[in-house]
Amino acid sequence: MKDTILVVGATGMLGEPVARRLQKDGYAVRVLARNPEKARAKLGDSFDFIRGDVEDASSLEKALDGCFGVHINLKGGPRAEDFERIERRGTANIAKAAAQKGVQRLTYLSGAAAFEENSWFPSIGAKLGAEAAIRESSIPYSIFCATHFMESLPLAVRGKRASVIGKQSHRLHWLAAGDYAGMVSRSFQLPGAANKRFFVFGPEAWTMSEALEKYCAAVHPGIKVSSMPIWLLSLIGRVSFNAELKFIAELMRFFEKVGEGGDPTEANALLGAPTTTLEQWCEQQSRAA
Residue by residue, what is the 3-state secondary structure of 64-130? Predict the structure, then answer.
């Protein structure tokens, strides 16, 4: 029988590639979804869908029944209390239920800026709290502290405009979600990947402006990249009562100050270094458009 892995967050931008890669690599993949019908419409019929919520302990226990592993890819926010409720407490709930059910491996997507000195920022504080809950569960884990994903670049394009928010001068090793998914899948197969905190970087470093310009040149050649002051986006968020825009403004202010952290050497050696370049990824997006 195939080992079963529960994926929490499988319908998300970064959870879906993991679910599909795990299935491709021979695992039976179970998907936790608040709306299984909607999840099935997006992912197809090859997954085992189960209704549940990270705030509902009984649904988590049911979803984890008989599972070898669980992958956690939660998206909290935009308010600080939502990061605390969904990412930290939600992860803690999953880890507790997984321990009770005898789950043997757990993987979690954290971030390359997840260090104690950055814990003042709500999303980072929640990730660090989630990591602590995972370690306390005593389940062998692999935590992935990943840098910026190439899949986030299309989010900067709105209509005929592509914008970089603030002065984003840090050079970032942009990562393709497919490469990351492969590393997650391999971590379930390798005993040596247990109880590790991996930093995951792509093969090349570009600033946000450089990366967005390359993406637009390949996929949206008629669109020029411009910059927007953080204060302006924050103002728009306040006057429109849009919590998401206000959070993005604060996130970009954080990224102005904080770049990547950690060393990807161990992750590359054990799980295989990501190889997809930004140019290759953009070509893929252009063909799919």
Answer: HCCCCEEEECCCCCCCHHHHHHHHHHHHHHHHHHHHHCCCCEEEEECCCCCCHHHCCCHHHHHHHHH
